[in-house]
Amino acid sequence: MSRIEQLIGEIEEYIDSCKYQPLSNSKILVNKEEMEELLVELRLRVPEEIKKYQKIISQQEAILADARNQANSMIEDAKAQTQEMVSENEIMQQAYNEANSLVQQAQAQADKILADATAEANSVKASAITYTDSILASIETLVGNSISEQQSKYQSLLDSMQNTYNIVTNNRRELNNAMNAPAPQDPQYMDPYADSQDEYQQ
After folding, report:
1. Which of 121, 117, 195 is nearest to 156 (CA)?
2. For residues 105 and 94, what is the distance between their CA atoms, to the nearest angstrom?
3. CA–CA dist 129, 123 (Å, integer)
4. Nearest-CA neighbor of 36 among 16, 11, 19, 5?
């Protein structure tokens, strides 16, 4: 509580303690000296209290101004940080877009390389199959011809051997017949290999 408030309280108490004038309910008897002392002190205290409150008000204004300055500074900092974050976000977004574009280009190039390699591999495979089939066809023809030729020679050999066998059989038969004949006769001798050698040379 300030001194002015105390003085006002004292004045009120003093007035309440004063006696009323005779035949009056509103007028009181006041000690002039006591009242003047209270009023003088009140007048002296008022400027001091006013200055005190003015100082407090000034301090409050300074505090408010400082608070406003700090608030404005904080707002400006927040705006700057927000702008910086937006700029960083834009940079990140741009970098992401560029990176994504590079990835797509690399993927497209990889797909093209793979497709070209697959096509080339299929072409080489087809050429290899065609070449191999051609070689196998040539070998098949050569082996077939060799088999046919060998079969022909083998058949000639079999025919020659069969002929020789027949000649030998006939000669043996004739020899047996000659041995069983009443009179010995000179059997006609035939060379069993003469015909077979001629046929084999053919």
Report:
1. 195
2. 16
3. 10
4. 11
DSSP 3-54: HHHHHHHHHHHHHHHSEEPTT-SS-EE--HHHHHHHHHHHHHHHHHHHHHHH
Q: How far apart are CA 111 and CA 100, in angstroms?
A: 16
Indicate the Cα dihedral angle 113, 118, 121, 127, nearest 10°.
-120
Q: CB atoms < 10 A from the CB of 196, how many?
A: 19
Rounded CA Rg of the chain: 72
DSSP states along 151-199:
HHHHHHHHHHHHHHHHHHHHHHHHHHHHHHSSS---PPP--TTHHHHHH
Q: Is 118 exposed, middle or buried (0-12, 13-18, 19+ CB in 10 A)?
A: exposed
Low-confidence spans in the chain with pLDDT less than 50: 189, 200
Q: Are strands 28-29 and 19-20 parallel, antiparallel or unpaired?
A: antiparallel
**What residue spans define the domains of the chain?**
151-201
Residue pair 175/187 in contact (Cβ under 8 Å)? The answer is: yes
Q: What is the pLDDT of residue 200?
A: 46
